[in-house]
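In this notation, each integer encodes one residue's backbone shape. One such record reads:

___
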Amino acid sequence: MPEDGCSPAASRDFQRARAARPPPHLNLESTTMDMGMIGLGRMGANMAQRLAQGGHRIVGFDPKAEARNAIEANGCASADSLDALVAKLPAPRTIWMMVPAGSITKGTVDELLKRLAAGDTIVDGGNSNYKDSLAQAELCQAKGIYFVDCGTSGGVWGLAEGYSMMIGGETDAVERLRPIFETLAPAKDKGWGHVGVSGAGHYTKMVHNGIEYGLMQAYAEGFSILEHKTDFNLDLHKVAEIWRTGSVVRSWLLDLLSDALAKNPEMAGIAPFVADSGEGRWTVSEAIDLNVPAPVITASLIERLRSRDTESFSSKLLSAMRNEFGGHPITKQ
């Protein structure tokens, strides 16, 4: 149990209780809005629920009936098709997408453009490539529809804690959606901002995630060094708890790392396989295009790729070369 006396289970119960209450900074008599939410996975459903708690009228759409039923239980309406979603929203309509980046986002925008009218707004809150967002904005502009790209951070904790949002798009569109952003954010005037024209929001979020790669890699390597120093038999969870307060390396990632170590000190049952969702690759590519050295972010991306190679041919070659030039022993499988 952590030294503050709160077990991980108790902490989760506390977070669930907080999530059931309206965000504390909200005045429910303030401006409310009608909005559609497409994509009711964990992020989309939690965002819809937070907005409903803030007094907004949310209509959600997801191909899965169980996802639609779940948000209805949390104060939202639902629609079983895009046509029904658009029909349930008053003009000018606002529709927020939380769907996978790439072809699904592009396809969803294409379908919405067939159904929306001039003055409506599409918000892409997923992790789209900023170049895709620039293209989507151009398509929308040709039809008089606003396109807002919102880089969204907060993960599964966003319902209780609020979301960090980096927003790109035309000023008029962003200002009209201010009540939505103020409700989703950790505070009305903190954790969100209009960072620039269309594409700027997802560009900023791309670099944010590149930095995240580097931070996570540094923590992982540091704790691995501590774990390998068997002479001291260090309690890694205790070390993490010490660093969480007053240390220059304290952060929310360290909080999460400490929680993970409390639950599973040996990381038992976890395969050393680390996925990436694309933003780290895009950040490295952008750094190369701009001639900006980014060795830490690049190395963290390469480490993720290396983690997936359970039959590393390159490592086998390294072992073979050491044997060839120095007679060093080869470890057999």
Remarks:
- Confidence is low (pLDDT under 50) at residues 1-20.
- The first strand starts at residue 34 and ends at 38.
